[in-house]
Design a protein that fits this description.
heterodimer, A: alpha/beta, Rossmann fold, Helix Hairpins, 4 domains, two-stranded antiparallel sheet, B: SH3 type barrels, 2 helices, 6 strands, 41% strand, binds guanosine-5'-diphosphate
């Protein structure tokens, strides 16, 4: 007996797969990508009746044809021989739609367990499904479950074990009658039998897929030297389509849905149930052509403002200080979550240094840990509460069903920039942090749109850049009107550049004239479940911790080393460090902005630091001005004119957000070339735009005086 | 027979055929937009249409919706 039972979990998007997966496995054991793809692979373990069950989450898809990488991944894993059985989820509130995937899997393999999800919701909507009858029709075990209420889980696990142990299982795959296509299916089947083609696949299934013209399978056959088989099925397909005038794949999908309908008619009973009037009113407002877009934006903005205020005190601190309550503003900042985390880490750094000294550790070790690693970890963690809260807010918006409706109402706006309404997610997330924003590009079904988002969303000013903007603007502009105008104009420039980049990528690089089409499933509006929101939030946040965390820790060590060491070993004065040498090397660039001398290399080095993380920019400037001055004094000590400050600020906001984002771009595209090109593009456009502003400004000043 | 995009809200219709490209047609069909299936237009304005198909609400951009040919039902 095999020690471990492997279960592949398949289901349509929105079927309740993540929720059930979390209920089944609790902690997710392992997240990785499927080999050779950017499709995420999740695994989790559950012990039941003394056996270990390993659940492997397949991507949420509507079918297992080969139209997307997700579908290929799902299908090839099912036939790989690794899973003992496939658990297919069917949404019991929409069986007529979601049974389709179950039927497709049953055509491919007989080792299937079907879970009817959201039993509680089906019940309250007056939908009843005859489980026994359904089992009889599909010849596979069916279990009614509710992940939210926790019902049916034990029975589901029992059934999985029974099937895995061979006590209960369908003997053969499901046969759907494809009417006039049947003789041709038999013809291809006998061809496949003679040549013993791909014995790991069900032969009938393979025959149907080849008749449909499945590219992936055709390629596989050609690779195995079975080109003649492919040629035969291809010419057969062409002959059939020519003589019948109908598309085979359309016939197959339609027949399958007709079969699903016939099953549903016999097993699903609907009794009228009252619908919640409040939800339908919200719903109507959200998708209203006139009120929808502003309402949607308002909800998102409110969520973000709340998250920012809790974390950084912004914009409450500005509000308080502008009405003369600057002490309150300082308190708000100090007791914001990031403020507290940062303070905690500076205390931790000092204490650790003390303890290490006392223990007799060499001084470079103490410095590395207390000045390099701990502040580095701290700088990541000070953003962590923000990430968690923003994700919580977005998860509420998503889980309640408001999110997809906002995407619908914003569709027209994003169409102008070569995107669909779905782009609202990455753009909003980007205002918090660019790393999860790049990852959020996954929601796009169109590959081009996904790439457009990946290269354009890093221009969206994140929280770290907001800090830089606020610091410079308050230092160099005294009048609140100018401060406000500079902040708004910089956000406008950055967002426009992001949208223009997306449009240009689509038009020039992908050569597509029309925006991506929106095809989006809209789940019913409902009260978000606390459990689901928490899981979603934690799942995303862990992602951030793991991917950004490791990188930033390494970077902060590198930064510390650059500033502490020079050609002559440990340096007391940063001016002799490798960092200064680096800064001097690129300081000529700053001459373009009319900045020279000592300030040029300092600004240049700060810009290099800013490549790693934007917060580092301001800190570096403060450190290099002697440390003991306020941020404002340090910035003023650079001696810039307001025009220079503004243009440089534009540069700082637009060039490469941080290394974590670059890493995210690489992880999402798996292409070193795309990553490098987008990095260079960001630096180049930052230079061009900021220099244009600088010289136009100079010209205006010249004319004015 | 008219494209789904031109139906006013509240109308029901039966799908006759899909005229888009191979990938899009396939995706729509796998989502349940197969010939013979009944659809109901829930809302239709300048933006995307909301239609109900097989018990699920789906938002369709106008471009997609004009490639789904339907026969309105009384
Ligand atoms: N009523 C009810 N809703 C559920 C249940 N499981 C999931 N949902 C909801 O269904 C939606 C989709 O769930 P999710 O797990 O994200 O689906 P996925 O896309 O398949 O991973 C969410 O809004 C969930 O809150 C359930 O057992 N009962």
């Amino acid at each position: 007996m095999k020690r471990e039972i492997v279960v592949a979990v398949a289901g349509n998007p929105n079927v309740g797969k993540s929720t059930l997966f979390t209920i089944l496995t609790g902690e997710i054991a392992h997240v990785a990508n499927w080999p050779g793809t950017t499709v995420e692979r999740k695994e989790g373990i559950r012990r039941h009746r003394g056996r270990v069950i390993r659940f492997v989450d397949l991507p949420g898809t509507y079918s297992i044809s080969a139209t997307s990488p997700e579908e290929i991944v799902a299908r090839e894993y099912i036939v790989s021989g690794e899973p003992d059985l496939v658990l297919v989820l069917v949404d019991s509130t929409a069986p007529e739609r979601t049974l389709n995937l179950a039927v497709q899997v049953l055509e491919l393999t007989s080792r299937v367990v079907i879970a009817l999800t959201k039993a509680d919701a089906a019940h309250s909507q007056g939908i009843h499904i005859h489980v026994d009858k359904l089992e009889e029709k599909l010849r596979a075990p069916v279990v009614l479950v509710s992940a939210l209420k926790g019902t049916g889980i034990r029975e589901l696990l029992d059934t999985i074990l029974d099937v895995a142990e061979g006590k209960r299982s369908g003997k053969s795959t499901l046969r759907i009658n494809y009417s006039w296509l049947e003789p041709y299916i038999s013809e291809v089947e006998s061809l496949l039998r003679k040549q013993n083609v791909l014995p790991e696949y069900d032969r009938r299934w393979l025959a149907i897929k080849l008749l449909e013209g499945d590219r992936r399978l055709e390629d596989l056959l050609i690779q195995k030297g079975l080109k003649t088989v492919v040629e035969k099925t291809r010419s057969l397909r062409q002959a059939i389509e020519r003589s019948t005038g109908r598309s085979i794949s359309e016939h197959i999908i339609t027949s399958r849905f007709n079969y699903v309908d016939s099953i549903a008619r016999e097993t699903v009973v609907r009794v009228p149930a009252p619908s919640a009037p409040m939800f339908s009113r919200i719903e109507n407002l959200l998708i209203h052509p006139l009120y929808g877009p502003p309402l949607g934006l308002l909800i998102l903005l409110a969520a973000f403002t709340a998250a920012f205020a809790l974390n950084t005190g912004f914009p409450l601190n500005i509000v308080f200080s502008s009405i003369g309550l600057s002490e309150v503003a300082e308190l708000v900042e100090e007791y914001s979550l990031s403020g507290l985390v940062e303070k905690g880490f500076s205390i931790l750094g000092a204490k650790t240094a003390e303890i290490l000294y006392a223990a007799g550790a060499p001084s470079w070790v103490v410095a590395l840990i207390a000045e390099g690693v701990i502040p580095g970890v701290g700088s990541v963690l000070s953003f962590f509460p923000l990430i968690v809260i923003i994700y919580a807010a977005l998860s509420v918006i998503e889980d309640s069903g408001i999110g997809p409706r906002i995407a619908v109402s914003m569709n027209r706006f994003f169409n102008y920039f070569g995107l669909s309404g779905k782009a609202i997610y990455p753009f909003m997330i980007g205002l918090g942090c660019n790393v999860p924003a790049v990852l959020a590009s996954r929601a796009s079904i169109e590959e081009e749109e996904r790439k457009q988002i990946i290269v354009s969303v890093p221009f969206v000013p994140c929280q770290a850049r907001l800090i830089v903007i606020l610091a410079f603007v308050t230092a160099y502009f005294r009048k609140p009107v100018f401060q406000a105008l500079s902040i708004i104009s910089i956000y406008a420039v950055a967002l426009l550049l992001a949208l223009a980049t997306s449009l240009a990528t689509r038009r020039v690089y992908f050569r597509k004239k029309t925006p991506p089409e929106l095809i989006l499933e809209i789940p019913p509006i409902h009260r978000p479940s606390f459990k689901v929101v928490w899981w979603l939030t934690w799942d995303y946040s862990k992602h951030f911790l793991r991917k950004a965390g490791t990188l930033i820790v390494l970077l902060s060590i590198a930064t510390w080393w650059l500033l502490s060491y020079g050609p002559g070993g440990i340096v007391e004065d940063v001016r002799a460090s490798y960092g200064a040498i680096l800064g001097k090397a690129i300081s000529p660039l700053l001459l373009l902005y009319g900045v020279g001398g000592e300030n040029a290399w300092k600004t240049a080095f700060a810009l290099i630091q800013g490549l790693a993380a934007k917060e580092a920019l301001i800190e570096t400037i403060a450190v290099m001005q002697g440390g003991e001055v306020s941020t404002k004094e340090a910035l003023l000590a650079l001696g810039l004119t307001p025009l220079q400050a503004y243009s440089l600020l534009v540069f700082m906001v637009l060039y490469v957000p941080c290394f974590a984002t670059i890493a995210a771009i690489y992880l999402e595209t798996k292409s070193l070339k795309t990553t490098l090109v987008s990095m260079l593009y960001m630096i180049a456009s930052a230079m061009i735009i900021s220099l244009t502003i600088y010289y136009l400004g100079q010209l205006i000043l010249l004319v004015a005086t | 027979m008219i494209p789904l995009a031109y139906l006013p809200p509240g109308t029901r219709a039966r799908i006759v055929g899909l005229t888009g490209g191979y990938g899009q047609t396939r995706r729509l069909m796998e989502m349940g937009f197969t010939p013979g299936t009944q659809v109901e237009v829930l809302s239709s304005g300048p933006g995307p249409l909301l239609v109900k198909v097989r018990g699920v609400v789906v938002a369709l951009g106008r471009g997609v919706a004009s490639k789904i040919i339907v026969e309105p039902m009384r």
